[in-house]
Amino acid sequence: MDKQLTKAQVQDLFAKEAVLIGTNDGVPFHRVTQLFGSKAANYGFSFEGGRNVFGIGDYQLSYLTIRGFCGAAAYHNVELIHNDLEEVQSA
pTM to 2 decimals? Predict the structure, then answer.
């Protein structure tokens, strides 16, 4: 994703990307990484209440809740703003 998102856009994106995992809606960690990058996904995963893990047999699926997804999106927004600022300052 190469654009900054508003809160409403992030909520809409979560609604589009989320799937039922156990009894909660969440976005699988690997998908958040694809959307926002690994640093942003890890940041969102670090939020209290922002992540969970659901297991079936030998497989454990890490996913982000809306709280973690918003954290990842916010990190991504700040990263994009920072990159834009660096470009402006180096011009």
Answer: 0.91
